[in-house]
Structures are given as structure tokens and as C-alpha cells.
Amino acid sequence: MNPQYLLSRIQLFSILGSVVLIALLVYFIRRRKLLEEYSILWLIIFSIFLVVSIFGAFLESFSRFLGVLYPPAALFVIMIIGIFLLMLHFSIIISDLKRKINRLSITNALLEERIKSLEKRGS
Amino acid sequence: MKILVVIPAFNEEGSIGRLVGEIYEHIKGSDILVVNDCSTDGTGNVLKSLGSVKYLTLPFNMGIGGAVLAGFNYFLENDYDFLVRMDGDGQHPPDQAGILIDAVVNGGADAAIGSRYLGHEKEYSSHMRRMGINLLNSLSSIILRKKFTDNTSGFRSYNRNAVRYLAADYPFDYPEPEEIYILTRKGYDVREYPVRMKARETGTSSINTLHTYYFLVRVLLTIFVKYMIGGKK
Question: Do A81 and A48 touch, CB atoms closer than 8 A?
Fold first, then answer.
């Protein structure tokens, strides 16, 4: 099989895939399912994926730079780096949320105690 | 001078009542705050029946760090001067708290830690736990250039400055070794005093053998991370 042919076919699929993913992302943002704040990194990664899919030359030089003989494999590298970045991003968000939830819970417990003692004093 | 005794409690229905009685007997004029860390046994009901004891009920199990932090916040909000922390399982006899209170009230210490090893080493603990404790002790000696023999002890007293500083960014779980580290690095005067401790009366320790490995790795990692951050200052 002609490798050039294979590449362009993968190229077609990855362009299609990126467009669908970006469309999906925009859809979720518009439906208020996803906060813009948390969609930025997704958008950046999908866009990079799209650009790389369209400009095969970039992918080829990038894969040569990495020493990868098969350009589409370089695409996977980009994808995996992107996924790792997203996961890290989520861990940061989760840590932040956990800290906030803990603070909120403590505040709540303190308020509850204050109400209890006020009620006791009132009765 | 207002003293608050903070007791983080998770499933301590069997020991908390007696402990409270002993505290009133030995730490005169203190207020007691039990932080019920979402116990699944009758701890909540016991607390309700105790009358004069103040208590907080956390909405979910936050772990020891969260429970202690809740106590810190209560302390700061209600203008107390000194805080004594002790476990709810009866390991820390209230008649031993006097040494720790004296250290922060009259001795000028910012925080005092009750050590079960200072003076009489090789007692009370399982082999595995002692190994972990030894490792932590050596580590703190190296990093802090100050010897601590019982990094994991939860029998402690603090003055208001120390509590305020700790409450600003308190570790979620396993806060004890890190606390010593944070305070000492910041220049607070943390001292250790020998205290007598008892074996647990009821319930199970939050740090069992399987947990010890995880505990160690976590504490070492946190201290390592803090060390790197601290080094940049």
C-alpha cells in the first residue's frame, strides 16, 4: 500500500475528528453544560490537533524532529501530551474544589454550632 | 486567659464521655470542643447528652486535618488564648496536659508537643509504626536541625499566633509531622515534653500497619515539596 495514500486518509479522518470535537465543545458551552473557563484547554488542544492534521508538512517535520519514522505516530504523541495536560488541569481543579469544599464544610459546622448555642441561650 | 481543649473524634462513643469528665477535673476552667468527624456510631448522641461540651459536627468525614482545622477556626472565632489538642480515644491522659499548657502559657513556647518517647523510648508502639516514627524523627532532625522524638503525637498545645499561622494553610490529613515542620521553619518555638500515654481504650487507630507505608510516603512527599518551596524564599 502507498504510504502517501494512507497518510492522507488518516489526515482526512483526523481533520474530520477535530472538527466534530470542536463542534461538540462549542455545543456544550452554548448549552451551559461546560463553563468557558474549563473549555479553554480543550479548545487549544483540539485546535492544535486540527492544524496539525491540515498541515501534514508540519507533522512530517515534527516527526523527523522527534525521530519518529511514521508521521501519524507523531500525531499520537501530540495527542497523549494533550491528554496528560488536560488530566493535570483536572487534578488542579479537583484540588481547588476539595479545598473549597472543606472550607465551606467547616464554616457550615461553625455556623451550626453558633445557631445551636443561640437557641440554647434563647430558650 | 481562655483555654480551649480540641478533641477531633471519629467513632469514639465508648471513650469520649469519660475523657470529657477527666478534662474538667484536670484542666480547670477550660472549654471543651469536640469535633465530630462524621462518626457513624453514637458519638453524636453522646455529645448531645454531655451538656456543657461544645461540639462541631462535620457534614462528611474530613479526616484528622479537617477536624483539627475546624477546631482551630472555632478557637480563632471565639477569642481563645491557648489551645490544647488531644485524641478522643483516651490515649492522652488529661492529667498530663498541664505540662503542655504550662509550656505555652508560662514557658514562652509557641507550641508544645507531648512525646511518649522522650525519656522512655521503645514503649507502646508496634514495630512497624516505630520504624516509621524513627524515620520521620531522623528526617526532621536533619531538615530542622532540631530533635523531635514523637512527630506523630497528637497531644499538643499552641498559643494563638501558632494557631493563626497553621489555620491559614493546614494539611488535610496526617498533619502532625508537617505541623512541626511548618512551624519550626517559620521560626516558631516548638518544644517537646515527655508525657505518659495510654494504650487505646476503644476503637481503632487511624494509622494501622497497612496504612503506615502510605502514611510515610505521603508525609515524606509533602515535607519534601514544602522543603523545595521553602528553599526558594
Answer: no
ipTM: 0.81
Q: What is the pLDDT of residues A103-123, one digit of tens each?
A: 999 999 999 999 998 998 887
Q: Which is it for strands B156-159 and B3-9: parallel, antiparallel or unpaired?
A: unpaired
pLDDT of residue A98: 93
Q: Cα B7–B28–B179 angle (5° rounding)?
A: 35
In this predicted model, what pLDDT tens digit does every residue of A65-101 receive, in sequence order?
A: 888 888 778 878 888 998 999 899 999 999 999 999 9
Instruction: Report the CATH number at residue B94.
Output: 3.90.550.10
* pTM for this model (two decimals): 0.82
Query: How many contacts (CB atoms, under 8 Å) link A and B?
Result: 36
For chain A, which residues lie within 8 Å of any Cβ of chain B, measuring from their own Cβ? 98, 102, 105-110, 112-113, 117
Residues in B whose CB is inside 8 Å of some CB of A read 35, 54-60, 62, 66, 69-70, 73-74, 77, 172
Domain range for B64 is: 3-229
Domain count of the fold of chain B: 1
Strand partners, B34: B7, B55
